[in-house]
Specification:
With 612 residues, the chain is mainly beta. The chain folds into 5 domains: 87 residues, Immunoglobulins (Immunoglobulin-like, Sandwich), CATH 2.60.40; 122 residues, Immunoglobulins (Immunoglobulin-like, Sandwich); 140 residues, Sandwich (Immunoglobulin-like); 135 residues, Immunoglobulins (Immunoglobulin-like); 72 residues, no CATH class. Strands 20, 21, 22, 25, 26, 27, 28 and 29 form an 8-stranded mixed β-sheet that branches. It is elongated, with a radius of gyration of 41 Å.
Length: 612
């Protein structure tokens, strides 16, 4: 008896395994069929109907849409009246029957497919209409090429005279596709308008400013928009189904670009240095960027390769003139370059070796002005005139400067408050009163870069702001890590550098020394309640001379003083001082009988010359 029960259990277990296997195979068959066939509706795209509504369905092969697979039979659904003819089934919901979610099932032998059906609020068939970009035309051809640098294709911008492909879609109040049919009450009619351009239905050439098109098969209609010249086109549409009509709430704006029409120039970076001797060449480099827009005001891309829609070096030319208007272009090596993926380490043009082309802004051409052959040009202000062929010209001034001759500094404010701050600004000029060439940052070594980068120490042109005295506690922003807030190092640009200090004490004064190379200047700030004698102006001293009081060209960085006071400080060192006054020099000497000797006054920042 026990053996008989055990045998029966084994038989039941085997049957369970067999049933599971059959179910698995059946599910696999269904899954396979569901992947190749599906249920579609010819009158309701979102399978949502109202109470008492009707939906027409059929099974189609996914690979052959539009044709019903007649071998499928649709199953009954409680609350619906079902009729089927040749693979096409009609489900009519009986008014008052249960509403909600239902499942339509169609079987072909062991195969079956299903589709969810909702009976409830079907929404308004036509509620919104949208104009959208297409990425391909009706034939599947790509409608836009990728932009520069591998960026995503933008189909809202093409060259003037080209085509932009769009479509208009009609949606119901549920945000689903509107139901479209062949009778007049369910046809979709779209009127589309292209303000500033032309439009046509489908992918044919656009030739009118507005057009109407009708669909009896789907909720979208394709159009193509064009414009012969550079400019912007506004596109909007109205859609009508039966007696319902709606208009787009937002227009679609399309750009048709043209070639460069107007150029503009940015600020100059860097600068050139005057020759060290009469036979030497200039050194340094100056550069600035040029950008362009087309006739519609849209920015152009830039490239080293010529093209009708980009700004490239062949589109522009550069002429350099001196202060007298003389053409001195041949005295320089001028190069125009677009951005590159990496710096060009060596090239046939000096300009391309003078800047890092990977740092050029996208959409810009860098005009690089490098020294020409020796002898170089004298110090002064020069003008680079860049002309877009057949269009406009922009002018950019740059300086060829000598070495630092004058260093001055000012503090703002001079009277400070507790928990406040002040900024010291240094001005660095050459002997002609021009801002000296921009300082250069140190370069860190990067042997793994392509090409490898060697370390470069450019600290010789740094501007150093250092607290050297006073009883007011201050702390410099961006100060050196080892200086405890008392020293700030900056690069100068455009002849200026500045450093900010925060007040951390209660009252008193602070003296900040500013130096670059051999030149120095100093400023004093004080709180309002500081003792008068501490806040008073300093007396002139040898330290107020930029070169410490030795003969030669220098600057005066101290309080106002007379030329006779300066010579008193220089007793035993010099017997004459000269004050730069524009293009002239004013002399004062302790030697008797020298004509034109004037006891002039100096202020901080004046350029003077000390001689015997």
């Amino acid at each position: 008896m026990i053996q008989t029960l055990a045998r029966k259990r084994m038989q039941l277990g085997a049957l369970a395994v067999l049933a599971a296997l059959v179910a698995s195979l059946f599910a696999a068959t269904i899954s396979s069929q569901s992947a190749t066939h599906h249920i579609v509706s010819t009158n309701d795209t979102d399978f949502t109907i109202a109470d008492g509504g009707t939906i027409i369905v059929q099974v189609e092969a996914r690979a052959a849409p539009g044709s019903a697979v007649a071998s499928y039979t649709f199953g009954e659904i409680f609350g619906f009246v079902l009729t089927q003819t040749g693979g096409v089934a009609t489900y009519r919901h009986q008014a008052g029957a249960p509403t909600g979610d239902f499942t339509i099932t169609a079987r072909d032998g062991a195969n079956s497919v299903t589709q969810k059906l909702v009976v409830g609020d079907a929404g308004t068939n036509l509620a919104t209409v949208n104009v959208k970009l297409d990425t391909t035309d009706a034939a599947g051809t790509a409608r836009a090429e990728p932009t520069a640098d591998g960026a995503k294709a933008e189909t809202d911008t093409v060259a003037a005279g080209g085509n932009i492909f769009i479509h208009v879609e009609a949606l119901n109040s549920l945000g689903k596709a509107s139901n479209i049919g062949t009778d007049a009450a369910t046809q979709l009619t779209v009127n589309i308008f292209a303000v500033g351009g032309t439009v046509a239905a489908g992918d044919t050439a656009a030739d009118t400013t507005s057009v109407s098109s009708t669909s009896t098969t789907g909720n979208t209609i394709d159009f193509v928009v064009s414009r012969a010249t550079a400019g912007r086109v506004e596109v909007f549409a109205t859609a009508t189904i039966g007696t319902a009509s709606v208009r787009t709430t937002e227009s679609l704006f399309l750009n048709f670009s043209g070639g460069p029409d107007v150029i503009s120039a940015g600020d100059v970076s860097g600068g050139l240095l005057a020759p060290a001797s009469a036979t030497a060449a200039n050194t340094g480099v100056a550069s600035f960027e040029v950008t362009s827009v087309d006739a519609a005001g849209a920015a152009n891309d830039a490239s080293d390769t010529a093209g009708p829609l980009v700004l490239d070096p062949s589109d522009i030319s550069t002429k350099i003139t001196d202060a007298d208007g003389e053409d001195v272009t041949a005295k320089f090596d001028v190069d125009e370059s677009a951005r590159k993926d990496s710096d060009v380490a060596q090239s046939t043009t000096a300009g391309e070796t003078a800047i890092d082309e990977s740092k050029i802004s996208r959409g810009a051409i860098a005009v690089v002005i490098a020294p020409g052959a020796a002898p170089g040009v004298a110090g002064g202000t020069y003008t680079a005139a860049v002309t877009l062929t057949g269009k406009n010209t922009v002018e950019v001034m740059f300086h060829v400067t000598g070495p630092l001759a004058s260093l001055t500094a000012v503090a703002d404010p001079v009277t400070v408050v507790e928990d406040g701050e002040f900024t010291v600004t240094a001005t660095l000029l050459d002997a002609n009163g021009l801002p000296i060439a921009d300082g250069k940052a140190d370069v860190a070594a990067d042997p793994d870069a392509t090409p490898a980068i060697d370390a470069v120490d450019n600290s010789g042109d740094d501007v150093i702001f250092e607290v050297i005295g006073g009883d007011l506690s201050v702390f410099g922003q961006d100060s050196d890590a080892t200086s405890r807030g008392q020293k700030v190092t900056k690069e100068h640009k455009g002849g200026e550098a500045s450093a900010t200090f925060y007040i951390t004490g209660d009252s008193g004064k602070a003296i900040v020394l500013v130096r670059s190379g051999t030149k120095t200047a100093r400023v004093t700030v004080a709180t309002e309640d500081a003792p008068a004698e501490e806040a008073a102006a300093d007396e002139p001293s040898l330290g107020d001379f930029g070169n410490g009081g030795t003969t030669g060209l220098t600057s005066w960085n101290g309080p106002d003083a007379s030329a006779s006071e300066l010579l008193a400080l220089l007793a035993g060192r010099a017997n004459a001082v000269w004050l730069s006054s524009g293009d002239d020099w004013v002399l004062y000497t302790s030697v008797e009988g020298v004509p034109n000797s004037v006891d002039f006054n100096v202020t901080s920042g004046n350029v003077i010359y000390i001689s015997n």
